[in-house]
Design a protein that fits this description.
The structure is a homodimer of 362-residue chains. Chain A has 362 residues and is of the alpha/beta class. Chain A has a seven-stranded mixed sheet. In chain A, strands 10-13-16-15 form a four-stranded antiparallel sheet, with helices on one face. Chain A is globular, with a radius of gyration of 21 Å. At the A-B interface, helix 1, strand 2, helix 3, helix 4 and helix 6 of A face helix 1, strand 2, helix 3, helix 4 and helix 6 of B. Chains A, B: Belongs to the alliinase family.
Amino acid sequence: MLVLCSGDPKMYEKFWRKMGDKTTITIPGWKSISYFSDTTNICWFLEPEFAKEVVRLHNVVGNAVTEGRYIVVGTGSSQLILAALYALSSHGAAEPIDVVSAAPYYSSYPLMTDFQKSGLYKWGGDAKSFDKDGPYIELVTSPNNPEGHPTGPVVNRSNGLLIHDLAYYWPHYTPISSPSDHDITLFTLSKSTGHAGLRIGWALVKDQEVAKRMTKFIELNTIGVSKDSQLRAAKVLKVVSDSTEEENTQEGESFFKYSYEVMEQRWKQLRAAVEANGLFTFANFPTGFCTFFNKKTQHLPAFVWMKCEKDIEDCQSLLLQHKIRSRGGKHFGVSQRYVRVSLLDTDENFNLFIDRLSSMQL
Amino acid sequence: MLVLCSGDPKMYEKFWRKMGDKTTITIPGWKSISYFSDTTNICWFLEPEFAKEVVRLHNVVGNAVTEGRYIVVGTGSSQLILAALYALSSHGAAEPIDVVSAAPYYSSYPLMTDFQKSGLYKWGGDAKSFDKDGPYIELVTSPNNPEGHPTGPVVNRSNGLLIHDLAYYWPHYTPISSPSDHDITLFTLSKSTGHAGLRIGWALVKDQEVAKRMTKFIELNTIGVSKDSQLRAAKVLKVVSDSTEEENTQEGESFFKYSYEVMEQRWKQLRAAVEANGLFTFANFPTGFCTFFNKKTQHLPAFVWMKCEKDIEDCQSLLLQHKIRSRGGKHFGVSQRYVRVSLLDTDENFNLFIDRLSSMQL
């Protein structure tokens, strides 16, 4: 069975192996004894070295404004989504605030929002059909997961609170049009450099009170975030920034250039396979000017969001019959004619996926 | 200001520095790319090496039965407490289940239970005065935090669900009487080896369904637990077990023997200081037979739980006037005549605490 239902970013292992010892980290036994990283920072468990490399990378890539922002580190961006919901909801309100997102939305949003049956916030469904008065929180994923398109908020009312999940706003997935500049912006190591197992995400937060409340959430939830993983993440981000600058001086291999080329090749193979069997369709993405690569580049989403054609009602089941485990449309708030498949597995598994896809017939 | 309100275990840094490179860990950049550690395990993000060392250490120390138990790793034991509340509560119930603990209880319990306003569980207060019918969850901390005494459940009704928080059930804090053998038992690295910054805790769980639900909670909360910290924790636990076995063969310094001696010395200094000024009282602990040390040992709690005598109503404020930040009784569900002070800071800060305490006068 090919397990392509989650977005496990195993593709990146190859690059990091090639980098050899550049990102190897050595941590002595007496390190990270204390709960605290920097008691002068609102986010008192944020490692200064990690914060420094976050700012540097965003400056190198040009995908986010960091000036005047508070950085809150999380155990992956999942924890930061919950922290942001906690921070934005009104703790004295009689009713929980509605949390919405435009379908197809990231399949975990409804589950994460509702699993604790919180009285602070509750899942309000598809943002496109949200018509209740009063305050709401809208989760905006851009580029969208699962579709891959750049998106913006859809409700657009004055009493809306926005959380921008920019996990895929990196030059190997999408053209960088300008530095993002939102109230709360979330990023994660899992999808940027591929280090999912470190469980490190970060939020760029405009408002000090919101940053304080997000920090409070993480304090009550896990009393901070692994220092080891923050230190490792700092080193990984440093090498990504370094590799970009070295590339400009023809000295090394740029992480983003390498990853872009892998994704470009994968999408080429995928298009050929899908065209060959005629069972599926997926979006065509226009190219866009990328300020990072300083040229027109393609949208190369981490997932393919496919629609089954002909009379196929359940695309997930069809793929399962061909030993491909995917995630069906119902998880994303739409019909089972749609399916999301990860394109971030190892070369071996990706090629197996292409082989199975190519040989599929009704 | 001496900050002794949290239990930051900085005392242990000295030991780990002495151990030199024994617990140094080197992690190459391509490690921990995947979300998954072991897909055959219910807790699919549990690193097998960490699980192995948890079992070994409990066998070496004799403080917990591990046979037939599921291990669930958490981002500190805080996350595991929430995971256990989630796992034990009935998701179809009309009312949230009451969560109780005998006062004085760990000050974070009410905050952690209620901060999300969960419809699954809610803080029910002091277990000693809990008189509602129906199911409940009782948090049992043994030895107790803040008091330091070994404790057991106090409600003792047939419809009670128990979570045993045994953060301090280690031979340097308390005589080990027998291997703990409960439905859900929680431990944490922060208080056992002192590595608070790693954010690693673990649960030993009897029931498979409960282990599954705890795992699900962590999946929805943080999609697993830092692999780097699990790998480091595995190495630290290994050195603790090794140091114990080497001590038996006169080759090294045992972590527990070292830590016991530091705590014994600190309690001696503390008693002398408190007797000198006559402002405070605290419990006398009887010695007990420790199966680990194979002799009678003392109770040497990580915190001192002091009561102000004479007419002092607010012990926390009194200490604050003398530049000692502590945590007052109200946080633990009792009067402000009581105060909890951490004894786990560095030698320097501990000695400063003793100096300030000794020189205190009304």
